[in-house]
Please model this.
Amino acid sequence: MSGHSEDPIAEESKRFFTFFNLSMLLVAITGIEIVIIYVQTFDGASIIGVLFATSIVKFVGVVTWFMHLKWDKILNTILFLMGLVIAVFTFFAVIYMSDDPPKVIEFNVASVENDWSADAGYSSGDYVKIDDSYFLCLSDHSSPSPSPTEKSSSPTWEKVNGVPHEFNWKVSTGDLIEINSLKPENPFFHHYNPVVSVENDWSAETDYSSGDYVKIDDSYFLCLSDHSSPSPSPTEKSSSPTWEKVNGVPHDNDNIEGSLISVLEKKASTEDFRIKVRSEAFWVENN
Model:
């Protein structure tokens, strides 16, 4: 007699199916998360809330069953949770101490009110207005220019359905910018990562300060000390303390400015839109 009240083979088989069912559940939850992210049926705050909740569910499932805490001593669970709490608080403390909250310095949305004139020159991508209709310029041309009438078959102009609007913004810093309409009947959504590479070609006749980045061919160098022209070349094999080669591409995410023109279904103003800026620790929007 073994002294065990349960068959060890049956117990292992039960655990196997528990692991299998849990893994299928985790796969299903991950699929739901992917759909929510790409379909974007909710606003940004709701998406983050749903993803946070599903992540907690997956985390509990993994540490309880796959890390065997369910069958270990309660002391192991307590030690694990203590380390987890300390790690989480340390992470957020470091992030908040090293990150500055972004600020929306300027944000404007206005319809394009550029009345067409036969005596003006136009470039491809320009929008003009005739009465209550808007037209898109398809090719560069100088005055006198053909009239972009609604029935015109000229390849110079194309009538657009809707009202073109110009979006302009300036923020102090940020890793992600998102602009969306507050009115469902006039939809608009735009987001991007404002990554600006430093394209400062090195010149021997230029003064440089510590912290400056320069580019030579496809390589980037960091200036380590102030020096005046003529300055030593920051070659890759240079042993000079003036320059240091960096791995990667330096970027500047401060004082980000941008603009775009988009055709909306209806005429709108700045109050009809929201701009949100995210940094490592903060997520702010215009008031």
Q: What stands out?
A: The first strand starts at residue 104 and ends at 111. The chain has a mean pLDDT of 82. The longest helix spans residues 8-39.
